[in-house]
Amino acid sequence: MMRAGFVLLTILAGRCGAATGEQCNQIIEQALADKNPETRKQAVVSLSLAATGAPAFARLEGMLADKDVEVRLAIVAGLAEMKTDSAKAALHKALEDEVPEVSFAAAKALWILKDPAGEQALLAVLQKESKSSSGFVSKQKRDAIRMLHTPHSMFLFALRAGAGLAPVPGLGEGVTSMEALLSDPNVSGRAQAALLLAKDKSDATLAALRDALLDKDWSVRAAAVHSLALRNDPRLAQDFEPLLDDKKEAVRLRAAAAILRLSAVPAPKKKKKA
Predict the structure, then answer these.
(1) Is 0.85 topped by the overall pTM?
(2) CB atoms within 10 A of CB 38
(3) Whole-number Å distance between alpha carbons of 83 and 86
C-alpha cells in the first residue's frame, strides 16, 4: 500500500518537470481511476497542491461513491479546500455516507466552511436522538460516531484558528484544555462536536451544551464545560457546581476552573428602564 503511494509520487515528480499541464492532469486522472485504493488516495491528496480550477478537481465530486473509506475521507478533505458551491453540494451528499467516519468528516468540513448544515449535523451528533429534529444520522450511526477518536488535522487547525473566544481581558483562550481533550484516545466524536460548537452563540447550541453537562460520557461533559466556560457568561457558573463532585477528574477540574473564570467576568449590566 505504501509502495503504491511512493510510486505515484515518483511518477509525478519524474514526468511533470518539463511536461505540459495537460500531461500532468492526465497522470493524476489515471491515478484517480487506478484499481489500487492507496494510489487513488494519493492522487486525491496530491490535488491539494493544484489549483482548484484544475480539471481533475471535477472528478472529486463524482468519487464520493468510491468503495474505499480512506479514499472517501481524502475526497471530503479535498472538497473542503475547494470552497465552491459545487463542492459544498458534494459535501452535503457525503453527510449521507453509510460510514460514520465519512459523514462526520463531511459535517466538520461544512462547519469549517460556515455552512449551516455543518452546525446542524454537529448538533445532531451531540444530542443523539434526544431533542433533535435533524435527520443527519440514524441511531446506529450516532452510536458509532461515539467511537471516533483522534480528529483530522484539518479539524485541529480549525479549532486552533477559532480559539480566540475571550473578549474579556485577563481570560485565557482554553487552547491547552482543548488540546488535552483532543489528545485523549477516549474522547468521543460527540465531545469533538461539543468543542466545535464553542463559538456558536445560538440558543439551540446553549441548550444542547447544558444538556451535555449531564451526559453519561465523561468526555462530552468535559467538552461541554469547556465550551460553556468560553461564553464568559457568569450566569452559567451555577450549572458547573454539581460537576465539582464528578467522578472524572478531567470534568471536575474543568468545572472548578470554569467557575473561577466566570467569577472574574463582570456581570452584565441591567438595561435602564425607559
Answers:
(1) no
(2) 19
(3) 8
CB neighbours of 61 closer than 8 A, spacing ≥ 6?
A: 79, 86, 87, 89, 90
Helix, strand or coil, per DSSP, at residue 144: helix
Query: What is the 3-class SS of 85-104, one letter each residue?
Result: HHHHHHHHHHCCCCCHHHHH
Q: Cα angle vertex 245, ends 242, 247, to 5°?
A: 125
Q: Please, are residues 37 and 70 in contact by the beta-carbon 8 Å criterion?
A: yes
Cβ atoms of residues 223 and 202 within 8 Å: no
Strands (E), the chain: none
Angle, CA 144 vertex, CA 139 and CA 146 arms, to 5°: 105
DSSP per-residue string spanning 58-87: HHHHHTTT-S-HHHHHHHHHHHHHH--HHH
**How far are the Cα atoms of 2, 152, 165, 254 from residue 157, in angstroms, in the given order?**
26, 9, 15, 23
Q: Is the Cβ–Cβ distance between 229 and 255 less than 8 Å?
A: no
Residues in the chain: 274
Question: How far is Cα 123 from Cα 127, in angstroms, rounded to an integer?
Answer: 6
Residue 257 makes CB contacts below 8 A (sequence gap 6+) with 177, 229
Q: What is the mean pLDDT of each run of 10 residues along the chain (274 residues)?
A: 50 50 74 86 71 65 86 85 82 87 86 86 72 40 41 49 52 68 79 85 92 94 91 91 90 87 74 57
Cα distance between residue 253 and residue 8, in whole Å? 49
CA distance 20 to 158: 35
Quickly count helices (H) and strands (E) in the chain.
16, 0
Written as nine digits, the cell of 88 is: 459544498
Tell me, what's the pLDDT at 85? 84
Instruction: Give the residue among 62, 84, 5 at the shortest CA–CA distance from 37.
Output: 5
